């Protein structure tokens, strides 16, 4: 049975299941959205993205991702990275084309791929500490039974929090260059990197990479639905046709707010990162004390952890019991990979108060077997 359906009616449940930032949108950004309404910005926006927003995006992401976008024809504004993924798959794939999806991974990728008629070529990262390596990419390409057209890489990763050093990425880039497949790089969590500077695959492989990112995680703007696709101008033009068929354009009000986020709100990710770092450290420390084995999270706001041996090896069963008895909801690892059944994903995006209470309840449940 679907896990969310199974826990839906439990009362007083603390949800550590969502990828929803526990911050309000910055006041400076909200002020711009209000002015937009007052100025009747209620008409169709430029379908590729408002010119000022695309200009701001080129400037912001060239600086923050250390990439070299030449101009606004290399940018497409989408309804979040969610729509962006559909646009990319529907543009580059022919029916039956393979896409390597390293797992564990964000589960909607598989649905988007199926919608576009693509075939998943799964790459299990668990044996390599949840990292993609040149050898595992070679193996996935070798063993694929369909022509491999692309790989979808996500880092910092949901659900593991894993990210890559400059040298790891250049080794991966060299392998991908050799195989000349598209590199779809979902870098939506780039601003939430704890281990120093985020390096973008786009900088290393600009001719092969389609870069996806957005404002949901960095600026806590999930409901505004703002995503960006960056890539070759001719390809962006093809993707625009697909985007126009799917959504036509992104809300004009949201685009105005996004412009504010990339200009006056440039410092927002920094203060969020400080808060998330503290939560991560607290959570990882406590989980280890309780007997979990967490993957070392270097980015995003999730901990992916092997459940304590005393609780068996079924993460689904553990999560159901934790929800019912401790009133804390975490996601079973199998939501992200069939090879991670003894793991759970714990989100620390929600408030400090919720995290404190959840940790207390988990501690009681695991150490003392307290029934709620
Ligand atoms: N990609 C990853 C890896 C995510 O974790 C999420 C949301 O959780 C998304 C994309 C979707 O983001 P958006 O809100 O921009 O559609």
From TrEMBL:
Top-level taxon of origin: Bacteria
Keywords on record: Aminotransferase, Pyridoxal phosphate, Transferase
GO BP terms in the entry: amino acid metabolic process
Keyword Membrane tagged: no
SUPFAM superfamilies xrefs: PLP-dependent transferases (SSF53383)
Cell membrane among keywords: no
Pfam families in UniProt: Aminotran_1_2 (PF00155)
Listed EC numbers: 2.6.1.-
EC class of the enzyme, as a word: transferase
InterPro entries given in the database record: Aminotransferase_I/II_large, AspAT/PAT-like, NHTrfase_class1_PyrdxlP-BS, PyrdxlP-dep_Trfase, PyrdxlP-dep_Trfase_major, PyrdxlP-dep_Trfase_small
GO molecular function per UniProt: pyridoxal phosphate binding; transaminase activity
Co-factor(s): pyridoxal 5'-phosphate
Residues in Aminotransferase class I/classII large domain copies: 12-361
Family: Belongs to the class-I pyridoxal-phosphate-dependent aminotransferase family.
Full protein name: Aminotransferase
Species: Oenococcus kitaharae DSM 17330
């Amino acid at each position: 049975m679907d896990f969310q359906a199974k826990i839906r009616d439990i009362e007083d449940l603390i949800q550590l299941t969502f990828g929803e930032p526990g911050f309000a949108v910055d006041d400076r950004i909200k002020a711009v959205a209000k002015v937009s309404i007052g100025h009747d910005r209620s008409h169709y926006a430029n379908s590729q993205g408002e010119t000022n927003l695309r200009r701001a995006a080129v400037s912001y992401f060239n600086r923050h991702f250390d990439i070299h976008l030449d101009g606004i024809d290399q940018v497409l504004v989408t309804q979040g990275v969610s729509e962006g993924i559909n646009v990319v798959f529907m543009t580059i794939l022919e029916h039956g084309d393979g896409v390597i999806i390293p797992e564990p991974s964000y589960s909607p990728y598989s649905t988007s791929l199926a919608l576009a008629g693509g075939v998943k070529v799964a790459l299990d990262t668990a044996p390599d500490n949840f990292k993609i390596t040149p050898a595992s990419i070679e193996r996935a390409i070798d063993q694929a039974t369909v022509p491999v057209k692309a790989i979808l890489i996500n880092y910092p990763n949901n659900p593991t929090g894993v990210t890559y050093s400059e040298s790891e990425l250049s080794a991966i880039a060299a392998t991908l260059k050799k195989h000349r497949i598209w590199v779809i790089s979902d870098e939506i969590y780039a601003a939430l990197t704890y281990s120093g500077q985020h390096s973008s695959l786009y900088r290393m492989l600009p001719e092969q990479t389609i870069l996806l990112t957005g404002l949901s995680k960095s600026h806590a703007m999930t409901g505004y639905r703002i995503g960006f696709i960056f890539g070759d101008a001719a390809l962006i033009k093809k993707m625009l046709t697909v985007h126009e068929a799917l959504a036509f354009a992104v809300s004009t009000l949201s685009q105005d707010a996004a412009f504010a986020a990339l200009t006056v709100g440039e410092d927002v990710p920094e203060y969020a990162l400080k808060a998330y770092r503290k939560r991560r450290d607290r959570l990882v420390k406590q989980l280890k004390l309780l007997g979990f084995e967490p993957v070392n999270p270097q980015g995003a706001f999730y901990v992916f952890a092997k459940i304590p041996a005393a609780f068996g090896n079924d993460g689904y069963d553990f999560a159901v019991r934790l929800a019912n008895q401790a009133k804390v909801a975490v996601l079973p690892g199998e939501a992200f990979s069939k090879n991670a059944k003894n793991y759970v994903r714990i989100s620390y995006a929600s408030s400090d108060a919720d995290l404190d209470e959840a940790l207390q309840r988990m501690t009681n449940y695991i150490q003392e077997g307290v029934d709620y």
